[in-house]
Amino acid sequence: MLSGNALLKRPIITHDTNTVAGMIDNVLIDPFSNRLVAFATGQSSQNPRSDTIVVPWTGIKAVKPDRVIVWATSMLVRAREMFEIRQLFRRGMVERGTRFVRRDGETLGEMSDVYFDERTGELLGYELVGGTARAGRSDRGFLPAPDTITLLPKKNVVQLPPDTSQRARDCQTCTAQLVRALHRAQQNQMVAADPAALARHLLSHVVGCAAQRTVITQDGYLLIVEGQAITRQAIHYARQKGTLPELLTAVHFDIYTWLNT
Fold this sequence. Notes:
Elements: E1 2-3, H1 4-7, E2 11-14, E3 20-23, E4 26-30, E5 35-41, E6 53-56, E7 60-64, E8 67-70, E9 77-78, H2 83-91, E10 99-102, E11 107-116, E12 123-129, E13 140-144, E14 150-152, E15 157-160, H3 171-187, H4 195-203, E16 215-216, E17 222-224, H5 232-241, H6 244-248, H7 255-259
Parallel strand pairs: 2-8, 10-15
Antiparallel strand pairs: 1-11, 2-3, 4-5, 5-6, 6-9, 7-8, 10-11, 11-12, 12-13, 14-15, 16-17
Helix pairs in contact: 3-4
């Protein structure tokens, strides 16, 4: 998982010539299909939307924490040449500062960042500031990408159904579940197993629990962000990265410290 903000001002590298084709100015998200549509670069001050140079997702070879690699220079085109992006501009966009409001009047907060799967472009969620989406003592919270929205571009507002909830299970409940799972692991003599196997067992018991801290891998990928629920998708992602024990630290449990006590 990567953050949209973290990629701003990062270079776009062409795979065919290994040169810098531009710097990322914006991340274009389609809030209706919940996916990253393109990266924007070289925005024009006269006609900032139609003259913007974009790299559509189909032209991207790889997205890294510090750069985006495109197949060739020809993948960079003007926004007006892409029907999908023209439609996105016409229909309205979710941008930093867009307010997320439930139809019952509750304001969840203003969008300050987006999180997406760097392998598929799938939008995973929004970072919201202020409002009721706050996680713990922070003024920021995580909202999973909603399936249903109403976009009011003139008001810069996203309306959500009244039953929309960003709240994961509280820390106290999850800690109790973790302790019980750890006790069962001791009874079944799993403690002597490798840390990854034990971590996978423990994580299966905290699915749905809120991360109490953001966890970043050594190579710069986000495993989970504060306030985001631990999901089976997140566990699968961490398993692919070989970082299951690190994901456990999101609920303040260090498996290596525990094994060495």
